[in-house]
Amino acid sequence: MKAKKTDSDSSVAWFKTKCRKAGLRVTPQRVAVYQQVLGSKEHPSASMVFEQVRKRFPDVSLDTVNRTLATITELGLARVIPGCGGAKRFDADLTSHQHLRCVKCGKIIDFEFPAFDNMKLPREVREDFTVLTKTVYVQGICNKCR
After folding, report:
1. Is residue 54 assigned to a domain?
2. Do 83 and 102 fall into the same domain?
3. Is the residue at 41 inside a domain?
4. Do 21 and 78 share a domain, yes or no?
């Protein structure tokens, strides 16, 4: 089952199931962190998630948010977007897509280009590695910053 941003209730249920199978308690704070990443189109950093979760749970710490984001990533419920520099940015949309980042403002947008997904890797890579994922990351300057 893949998590989709458009199906929040089933995604949260999937999150809870994955946590329980991993032997983790399902706390309201963990759920809130996951929901924040799941519902964000901004590919949030830990500090962005922290600021939003803190509105519901004023006592939550940045450390708790960081640890929860690490757990969510380790469980395969979200990804760290590669190549951002600076703070890690997270994406809970596990469908196949690529990212474009503005080097001026840091905005990250999703796009789909099937040719990237279907790209054939060199023979030596296919023979020497079991490829688990392929990621294409594009940097540029958005229209607003141009």
Report:
1. yes
2. no
3. yes
4. yes
pTM of the model: 0.83
| Whole-number Cα distances in Å, 60 to 14, 50, 85 | 23, 8, 26
The average confidence (pLDDT) of the chain is: 89
Provide the token pair at 102: 């503005």
| SS3 of residue 60 by DSSP | coil
Which residue range(s) make up the domain with 63?
8-90
User: What pairing do the DSSP bridges indicate for beta strands 137-140 and 108-111?
Assistant: unpaired
| pLDDT (0 to 100) of residue 137 | 82
User: For 6, how many CA atoms within 13 A lie in the half-sphere containing its CB?
Assistant: 1
Task: Give dist(CA 131, CA 9) in Å, integer.
Answer: 32
Residue where the block lists tokens 């199978």: 21
Residues 44 and 105 in one domain: no
- Cα–Cα distance, 33 to 122 (Å, whole number): 39
Residue 132 confidence (pLDDT) above 90: no
pLDDT over 90 percentage in the chain: 63
7: pLDDT confidence band, cut at 50, 70 and 90?
low
Contact of 139 with 100, CB cutoff 8 Å: yes
d(CA 106, CA 20): 35
